[in-house]
Amino acid sequence: QVQLVESGGGLVQAGDSLRLSCAASGRTFSTYIMAWFRQAPGKEREFVATIRSGGQIVYSDSVKGRFTISRDNAENTLWLQMNSLKPEDTAVYYCAATDLRYYSGSRYVTQRVYNYWGQGTQVTVSS
Q1: Per residue, what are the HEC states of 58-116?
Q2: Are 96 and 114 in contact (CB under 8 A)?
Q3: CA 28 to chain centre
Q4: How many C-beta atoms lie closer than 10 Å to residue 3's C-beta?
Q5: pLDDT of 1
Q6: Rounded to an integer, what distance in angstroms lies between the CA atom of residue 78 and that of residue 117?
Q7: 14 near 87, Cβ under 8 Å?
Q8: Tally of helices (H runs) and strands (E runs) in the chain
Q9: Of 23, 8, 4, 32, nearest in space to 82 by CA
Q10: How far apart are CA 93 and CA 80, in angstroms?
Q11: Three-state SS for 30?
Q12: What angle is formed at CA 48 by the lines to CA 96 and CA 27, rounded to 5 degrees?
């Protein structure tokens, strides 16, 4: 069982940076696979990045080279550093976690494998 709370969203200009954080409760945070997803109005929720407890990372092609996902298991915190922000990055960003282990590695970019979600934080990037 884990509870997730995102923070750090806001209104910025194109080219600016933001750092999102996800504070997690629970004694077993280090065992969860963590991820960031985002959802813009009228669109499906899309994968952004995932990081496993051992540090293995996968990024969406749309954010690769601009965003960095990281975690601190001792602090029970997940981060998303977002640089060179674009208007198309505007969305509600969600922190997600899963303790499900019966999916293949490629499935952890799919939202249905995550069984815990935060409430989301709004990121708006003006042109």
Answers
A1: EECCCCCCCEEEEEECCCCEEEEEECCCCHHHCEEEEEEEECCCCCCHHHHHCHHHCCE
A2: yes
A3: 19
A4: 11
A5: 82
A6: 13
A7: yes
A8: 0, 11
A9: 8
A10: 10
A11: helix
A12: 25
Whole-number Å distance between alpha carbons of 49 and 64: 9
The type of residue at 34 is M
Tokens 């976690």: give the residue: 97
> Which of 19, 27, 48 minimizes the C-alpha distance to 99?
27
Instruction: Find residue 51's DSSP bridge partners.
Output: 34, 57
pLDDT, one tens digit for every residue, the chain (127 residues): 899 999 999 999 999 999 999 999 977 899 999 999 999 999 999 999 999 988 899 999 999 999 999 999 899 999 999 999 999 999 999 999 999 988 887 889 999 999 999 999 999 999 9
Find the angle CA(36)-CA(91)-CA(4) to the nearest 5 degrees. Answer: 40
Which two structure tokens, joined as six digits, stand for 66? 């601009």
